[in-house]
Write a structure and sequence with these properties.
alpha/beta; about 250 residues
């Protein structure tokens, strides 16, 4: 069985796919449009989420699921980067409405589960995704809504040391992930010139910070972009895809 991309299918093909007896999983990449240092594109979170979803869909298809990747949501709650040019977000209420509406519609179409594939780690975005999961479950809408949350300890432990440190916005972790998808998107001459800037964001959040400026991220990055490599990115995608697959398998095993 092969993975599918919804946007490239016709409605007749989707109808036939959903008529089969297999478990049907829709993977929804949720990204953002926000500053990621001077060396990464504004679409960094979307690029990462799309590749996570692509690889997870392939693994699910190998296990016999009908796996369909939905078009990416390129806007999310992005208040932390609001002071940087190009950053464009939506409200928590707007994000909640979009996600709940899409999940309900996918359930009505016949998907057994929708999986939110997220790479945008802003606290209010994570909180919104968690709240949407609870609200969907309580609404009685058809189908499951899953969120393999990489910030949960059990998942974070499977990722890199920089990710676990909390100092990973446009640093080695994310720069490696973009390099693994398309090296031309990374301004490596700029990345190599950036000094390591270790800022434990989770500690600043605990103290009440609400923006990159509050944390001293004057160039919208922390971590070590110069240490990035495509090899690390490929290894990290394997771990991220496994986290998604495990969440789906566990949801239907319970």
């Amino acid at each position: 069985m092969t993975a599918h991309e919804l946007a490239r299918m016709t409605y007749v093909e989707v109808e036939a796919l959903l008529a089969g007896p297999e478990r049907k999983i829709a993977l929804l990449p949720t990204g953002s449009t926000e500053a990621h240092g001077p060396h990464l594109p504004l679409a960094t979170d979307s690029i990462i989420a799309e590749e996570m979803a692509r690889q997870a869909a392939e693994r699910l298809a190998e296990r016999g699921y009908v796996a369909v990747r939905l078009p990416t949501l390129d806007y999310a709650v992005t208040d932390w980067a609001a002071s940087f040019a190009g950053s464009a977000g939506i409200s928590k209420a707007g994000a909640r409405t979009i996600l709940l509406d899409l999940a309900r519609r996918c359930g009505e179409l016949g998907f057994d589960a929708v999986v939110l594939i997220n790479a945008h780690l802003e606290p209010d975005n994570i909180a919104t995704l968690r709240a949407v999961i609870r609200e969907h479950a309580e609404s009685g809408a058809p189908g499951l809504l899953l969120f393999p949350d990489t910030t949960r300890r059990r998942n974070a432990e499977r990722l890199t040391a920089e990710f676990r440190s909390g100092s990973c916005h446009a640093g080695q972790y994310e720069t490696s992930l973009v390099l693994a998808v398309d090296p031309s998107l990374v301004r490596m001459e700029l990345a190599n010139a950036l000094p390591a800037h270790h800022v434990p964001l989770h500690e600043h959040i605990a103290r009440g910070a609400t923006s990159f400026a509050d944390c001293g991220l004057d160039q919208a990055y922390c971590g070590d972009p110069a240490g990035a490599s495509a090899e690390e990115g490929r290894a990290t995608y394997a771990a991220l895809a496994a986290i998604v697959v495990d969440a789906v398998v566990e949801a239907f095993a319970s």
